[in-house]
């Protein structure tokens, strides 16, 4: 049967997630992967989680093995509220402000389903987290791509784009700006307080929402924390958090924090997607957070990630420091470094050579919507060992040299 003619427009336009595909290739034991933002499994509190899991299945089975409310488990919500108060200084959040989702990816999908349609506009970074674009694209909105600077989204260009919508009489169709302001994925850069306040001012001026995705905020290795956009303007901000980076991704738990009116509509949409987030993983996370200060426990993990980040930066300096036109970001936290080559380089073309040399990365073009830039790559430092990082960057230098030599005419033009 020809299934093509039966597919919806969403199915016809859907593209494979390159990071998910990378994970298949990364299973080769000789491969060194800087691909997916996969936490180091040795940092997972598996013994504590194992003990709690056995107990809640035996003693709380009427909850953990049953359907749960669409809004999520209040035990988990209250435990997370305490974490927000203690470690992020966020006050005034109640369970009614929270919706528990199946990871942040579902949160992004629910936001798209709730706020976007074919006539809508939304603004995203250039580059942008590809999972967000995949979720929003299902509603066929129009994307405003806003260039990234060393300190996050260029809010002056955002304002110019918004003025263009005003002049065309389309500003009412603009729904939200999507940002990862702290250790942005893929670039690793952070938006300073002044820019966050400017973004809030624009939200008031042009009447839009800010979708603040914050999966990496707790993974700060150095520098001073910056207040979240939500803490500065909760009425206009939708805050997304996840347990995937601070606890473990296998739980598949995300949380949306927003105004109660908006949460009510998001909850109704979620009921049509999956009824509820699994009760078992929610209660497991809740009991863990009640018994342990997870942020305090993250300190050894952060020391590990910082040392790996430093190892990668040192390796990049050693291998690429003398290569003309090559630069990279220097994040203070998170999981990623953004490596940039001269404009004529195509890192997707380079990828096949990389696979032959047993090293993986994510080609930069995966992180753009319309105006694709091909000369970047995202490197994740959290999973490989120090030895693998050094060897992987050495292999990457060889890949780049082979590519440059094979394309020497293009490099001179």
From TrEMBL:
Name the needed cofactors: pyridoxal 5'-phosphate
Transmembrane spans: none
Keyword annotations of the record: Aminotransferase, DNA-binding, Pyridoxal phosphate, Transferase
* A Pfam family of this chain: Aminotran_1_2
Q: Which GO terms describe its biological process?
A: alpha-amino acid metabolic process
**Domain Aminotransferase class I/classII large per the UniProt entry, residue ranges:** 54-396
Judging by the UniProt lineage, the source's domain of life is Bacteria
Q: Which InterPro entries does the entry mention?
A: Aminotransferase_I/II_large (IPR004839), Class-I_PLP-dep_aminotransf (IPR050859), PyrdxlP-dep_Trfase (IPR015424), PyrdxlP-dep_Trfase_major (IPR015421), PyrdxlP-dep_Trfase_small (IPR015422)
Q: Which family does it belong to?
A: Belongs to the class-I pyridoxal-phosphate-dependent aminotransferase family.
Q: How does it assemble?
A: Homodimer.
Protein name as it appears in the record: DNA-binding transcriptional MocR family regulator
Species source reads: Petrotoga sibirica
